[in-house]
Specification:
alpha+beta; four-stranded mixed sheet
């Protein structure tokens, strides 16, 4: 099915989805340990007595479930996708002879939390808590005169999500605004949908 863009408020976009995953999680090595335990137990299963097989299968299944759940919300999983969003956003700005945006780690942490909160159902899809994120950004960036946000879910690439925002007047205005910094956060929910948050500050 082709991605479908839905606009539900002046700053929000919604897509249909795909997912990707990187096995080698260097920042959280214990996640890799869980995977290896699950795989090894599964391989040992056929050599065990019948009364032990059920217990080993349960343990290996639990390890693998924990592994996939933890990697679903690891920011490192989406580092290339974050770069893709930044690249296409700045490419759009340069086409309008505007200065490129500088990625800001503190803004990205704020954006990441909002994407993770939406993905985990802690807040609904949209801009709930926007004023709180604005206050957090003010503490990170001095002075902060302008602040804006784009959100979306379901796109499978940075190009796709940025194209959707470009085709929506409010999102387009944010990407072409008088900002200096950008923060980008990405997270996936349990159904496989990827949530995006862009924060702009200037």
């Amino acid at each position: 099915m082709a991605p479908t863009l839905i606009i539900d408020n002046p700053h929000a976009a919604n897509f249909n989805i795909g997912w990707f995953y990187s096995f080698n999680n260097r920042k959280y090595p214990f996640i890799n340990v869980l995977a290896m335990i699950g795989i090894k137990l599964a391989l040992l299963h056929k050599n065990l007595p019948p009364h032990m097989k059920r217990h080993f299968l349960f343990i290996s299944f639990t390890c693998l479930v924990l592994f996939f759940n933890l990697t679903s919300f690891s920011p490192d999983t989406y580092s290339s996708l974050v770069t893709d969003v930044l690249t296409h956003t700045n490419k759009f700005r340069k086409s309008k002879r505007l200065a490129v945006l500088i990625i800001n780690d503190e803004l990205s942490a704020i954006a990441q939390k909002h994407s993770a909160d939406m993905a985990r159902g802690r807040v609904g899809f949209g801009h709930g808590g926007f004023s709180k994120r604005n206050k957090m950004a003010k503490k990170a960036i001095h002075p902060l005169n302008r602040f804006a946000e784009n959100v979306a879910y379901g796109a499978t690439s940075g190009k796709q999500v940025v194209t959707g925002w470009k085709n929506s007047t409010p999102h387009r205005r944010n990407m072409l605004g008088r900002y200096k910094y950008i923060g980008i956060g990405i997270a996936k929910d349990r159904r496989g949908r990827i949530y995006y948050t862009q924060l702009f500050a200037g």
